[in-house]
Amino acid sequence: MEHTIPEKHYLNEATGWKSWLMTLDHKRIGILYMIMVMFSFFLGGVFALLLRWELISPDKILMGPEMYNQAFSLHGIIMIFLFIIPSIPAILGNFVMPLMIGAKDVAFPRLNLASWYIYVIGFCFAVYALFTGGIDTGWTFYTPYSSETTTAVIPILTAAFVLGFSSIFTGLNFIVTIHKLRAPGMTWFQLPLFVWAIYATALIQVLATPVLGITLALLMLERVVGIGIFDPAMGGDPVLFQHFFWFYSHPAVYIMILPGMGIISELIATFSHRRIFGYKFIAFSSLGIAFTGFLVWGHHMFVSGQSDFAAVIFSFLTFFVGIPSGIKILNWMATMYKGSISLDTPMLWALSFLILFSIGGFTGIILGTLSIDVHLHDTYFVVSHFHYVMVGGTVMAIFGGLHYWWPKIWGRMYNETLARIAVVLIFVGFNVTFFVQFIMGTQGMPRRYATYLPQFQGMHGFSSIGALIMGVGFLLIAIYLIHAIFKGKPSGPNPWKALTMEWETPSPPRAGNFEGAQRLTHGPYDYDKVVPENALKQYKTL
Amino acid sequence: MDTTRSLFLPPQGSTVASDVDALFGFIFWISLFFFVGVTALTVYFCIKYKRKDGKGETTPYIESLALEITWIVIPTILLMVIFVWGFQDFIRMHIVPANSMEIKVTGQKWFWSFNYAEGATGVGELVVPVGQPVKLLMSSKDVIHSFFVPAFRIKMDVLPNRYTITWFEATMTGEFEIYCTEFCGKGHSEMWGTVKVLPKDEFAKWLEAGSGPGEGESMKEYGARMFVKNACNTCHSLDGSKNVGPTFQGLFGRREVMSDGTTITVDENYIRESILSPMAKQVVGYDPVMPTYQGILKDVDIDGLIAYIKSLEN
């Protein structure tokens, strides 16, 4: 069946740059975020490639140690604060979540636009820092190094501080939206699991981010006014900074991964055409992760000089944060059992997630174990572990999500062949880059090293080849996704034949999302009761 | 277990290393078992339940509380076993034996120095006897560093405002790498050192003999060794290039302009003064960041360094 693009949709109902910069439409704000966040991803990726290039040899290739320290700091700061934290909530959460619950928009559209502008201000501070001395503290800003270094600490801290508010506003907006704007008939247990994940994420954003803001503000006060809080030269305590920092930054890990898990739940259900197994277990495991995530920050500090007693408690609690993640993985697999599985591109991303995130989880158990973490802390094993979680988890999920909702966002489909090639490139490139880093880590290669002993050169070189493959893969994705926006084949309203509500509106949707009031007629995963067609609200009842 | 160790882990140089490795192996094999299971089942489902003829119907939904409980309870039990095991080893790694010998470790940008109760000092090289528990009392002179010996499976942050403690008992003689594993700035990745584990009698001799050139070693060669061991090389180049400090190439006899505008000729006394009181006379155009080696270097070390610098002509 041939599909056409509807005559009027949110992309052409208002025109001109002002209609974009002053827009209150959650879908357009999602796209504004997409432009900024993906540009940040590109920037962070360039720094990643520079790092891998430099590490091909222990001798200087492009950058001396000072430049290298700047490059790894910027890679981390850009990827964490400008890309991965806002990525899924701000882009897909914004675009899809209100559609999924049958709402016309988020609860506070003006706050939504404001949060984007705040993000842009934070972005500008980061770029300003980049051109006025850079930053060489790593994304962790550990004191007293960050109190002493002559690089642009204040602008970069301001950037992170400001970006925090953007994150808080988004979270607040989503909490209220999910509570108040669900379509009539949609109870909490009929919410798509992506919405549950976004909800759990929003709770962390609102509760944890202020602590980061306070910590960074204290650090700025110390540098500017000389109040001794963290710097021992002024009577402060550097380990206190680490506690404050990880009190935010550990829950922040779940800000990064929970929405990714939400996307995977949608992809697995849609492409298995199967009611999700253990819906309530998956939903509550998101809340469980959000809660437990607040209690484990000390596992970043087993060798920091915190008390052994504290270390033991934190290790104990850390194991409990692993269990909800395991529950999700097993429930996803059980969903596939006796399903009707189609391996379209988004599903390939989901399968990549399953495999890579599992490795990230298992190596997390190794790191949570007290005696082993003493050996592995601050080595490449940790670097590899968190890349398996952040890239193998979140990045696989966001690209799975983008490929899944691309036809909804633009009304057009990308080239499936190129898309499949890209998944394979990324999957292979990722493992080539990072698996070998586990071995380097266990053998003792410390992280954040501009140079290294000659025995590690072979593995570093191998890792760099993987980075290049990934770079090519992401470039390919950028090309065919952008091409699809203009030239892709019209996709129709429901190309994947899914049951969640965002597919009950034309692609791309109207400015107000739905024709008339949206009512819940079936659950998000009722594949055993109704079979959808790629047409507006057409279902075959079984 | 041995295969995982040779692939992943460095030699076992201390008493705790085999315990750490055993637990690593345990988790590794359990993880591998579950990982292969998850992956194989996923692939199997993708093939077995592949969508046919574009139809999307699936059989009615099954629910199984028993299954959910099973896959919550079994991992929880396994994780608790791992926790208790790791906890017990960790505590053993943190209780210093009463018969330990104590060595004071100082970290600073960007080298390690070691002070022995008997009065000996060492820079970059920690000399210890085999089969003897060694307690390290550690502190930093500037930012946070972290003391890591992979072969011993020990690591502990070194803080500027208080002491931290770790210990080890070496089980074999040889030389093992020390790394700094807390980012500390420009020279972080070259804040390397060596643990030299000697038989007990040789260690006793070393402690008495102290420093100085070895047999058949000239003062110049000894100085070259001191240049690397004391981390002079992290800030001073040998090829004429500008680094944190002035290059050593052609340094001896060079006329240098000081930060106060005076000019001096570099001679033996200027070098000695710059090592012991680096802030006294500084070459213009460089930051005042050179640490003092007062109490770290002995006269014989300085003599060696001077002999070495004299040999570095343009």
Number of alpha- plus pi-helical segments of chain B = 7
Largest beta-sheet details of chain B: 5 strands, mixed
Provide the residue-averaged pLDDT of chain A.
93
Q: Quick one: how many beta strands of chain B?
A: 12
Give the number of helices of chain A. Answer: 15
Mean pLDDT of chain B, as a whole number?
88
- Share of residues in helices of chain B: 25-40%
What is the assembly state of the chains in this entry?
heterodimer
CATH level 3 topology of the largest domain in chain B: Immunoglobulin-like
Helical residue percent band of chain A: 55-70%
Strand portion of chain A: under 5%
Outline of chain A: globular
Give the name of the CATH architecture of chain A: Up-down Bundle
- Uncertain stretches of chain B: none
Largest sheet of chain A: 2 strands, antiparallel
Global Rg of chain B: 28 Å
Q: Into how many domains do the coordinates of chain B divide?
A: 3
Gross morphology of chain B: elongated
Specify the CATH homologous superfamily of chain A. Cytochrome c oxidase-like, subunit I domain
**CATH classification, class level of chain A:** Mainly Alpha
